[in-house]
């Protein structure tokens, strides 16, 4: 039996666009994901977040479920287009939803953990110079974050500035798989820079407001990269894959500079880094209180002369999830050890870990998702090993509380420990939720 520390923070996570629905309610205006999902061919079968899990209306029922599972904390995100439906125009009715949600959570003794930005940029911001491509996005974001701190500051103990800047910049402006669907690597690095800058400016605003008892950090998706062989060229490929996925974000935040090797590699592709201004890196690297780590899988790469990163993914030996991601719990341990060794001794939280599997409701009205239980258990073992060696890991949030809108995959991929029947909006606790409930009660895994 593996025990976790007494005050270990057991949670689950969701995000606004993936669960709320009610996209035109109480003053909300479109986000770039409303636009993107309504654009032909961008999402599976043209799925959108118009209704999603109808959480905007069913939040009390969903908080009840959180209570039943027994989570200590719940990580959700706030929809910027509900708070500022237009530039500079605050919408109190949008804020009221989050006040209702937080009240419900506090009534059930569940710690609210809020992500300020989980990809639903207001369309008005995109229409003004491309959203994160426009340095003004920093100003817009700080105005938004400051309003949240004013209205909810001290009732939310953990604030996360951004969810996965890699996805909201590289995947969105470089690869094009996510909104707004650009395929321009220079734009991707400009967006990444402004997102990181907005993070630093928001942390500075948070400090100035002196919000008692609350902490602020950022959540990064981190993918350990391993060489396919001991060949020097494969090791170089892994170095570049690591820079692409991890160091490009970790280094500015914790070391106050972009990684030299990647600057050199990227300068051949994007030309001048003229979007980096005097003082930006000092702002980006202002001290934070914790690091959120989203971990799903690792990458294995071999050298490829023709690819931008000189790296080509090769499939790993492990089993895969429905997303095609290799299951590699030991890589989570490696990642945590590396972060502790090379980046920070600050408290860390696994703010997302989970998996999509083929889930079906069987005759008995249940969902026997043994693979998901196995996935979570193995990753918790890796986390426990890190903690046992003195690692400063303070909590774990399963992605996700419930099945939801899986971005470009729409509703075709289920990550929830709670099943959602989208026809009826009925929620069914999967076996993994019942198992997680026991883990939390015993604060241990077998
Ligand atoms: N090409 N490609 N992509 C490879 C890397 C993509 C990594 N995706 C994530 O980490 C997202 C994170 C997100 O916070 C959540 O909103 C998503 O629902 C989960 C599940 O997908 C994960």
From TrEMBL:
UniProt keyword Hydrolase present: yes
Family annotation (InterPro entries): GH (IPR017853), GH_1_N_CS (IPR033132), Glyco_hydro_1 (IPR001360), Glyco_hydro_1_AS (IPR018120), Glyco_hydro_1_beta-glucosidase (IPR017736)
GO molecular function, one term: beta-glucosidase activity
Keyword Magnesium part of the UniProt annotation: no
Biological process, per Gene Ontology: cellulose catabolic process
Active-site residues per Swiss-Prot or TrEMBL entry: 164, 352
Enzyme Commission no: 3.2.1.21
Keyword tags: Carbohydrate metabolism, Cellulose degradation, Glycosidase, Hydrolase, Polysaccharide degradation
Annotated positions binding substrate: 18, 118, 163, 296, 399, 406-407
GO cellular component terms attached to this protein's record: cytosol
Catalytic reaction list: Hydrolysis of terminal, non-reducing beta-D-glucosyl residues with release of beta-D-glucose
Pfam families cross-referenced by the UniProt entry: Glyco_hydro_1
Family designation: Belongs to the glycosyl hydrolase 1 family.
NCBIfam families given in the database record: BGL
Protein name: beta-glucosidase
Species name: Thermoanaerobacter thermohydrosulfuricus WC1
